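Hi everyone,

Forwarding the result from last night's run.
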Amino acid sequence: MRDEELKERIQEVLTSNYRVYGARKIWRELNRQGHAVARCTVERLMRELGITGAVRAARRRSPRCPAGRPARRWPPLRPIPRHPGPGPGQQRMDGGPNCS
């Protein structure tokens, strides 16, 4: 008997809000109006009624970089020098100190 009354209330809340409310917002609105009801009950009744809230569209991801942002190159085109060599343009390959 209570489920039938709540189903009517859920339908009222849904139609008064352009049929975009999901279970959480309907549950909050019902509690605001003074109808003490659990959220899982609202979810169950919405499933029985075949009601779903509005679903947002997936965000489109562009293959291009946004304006003002340089293209990211990965992996790097050249090795990043970790140990500077004794002179300009030279790099130690052993990773340790230079031995003469």
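The mean pLDDT is 80.

Cheers,
N.
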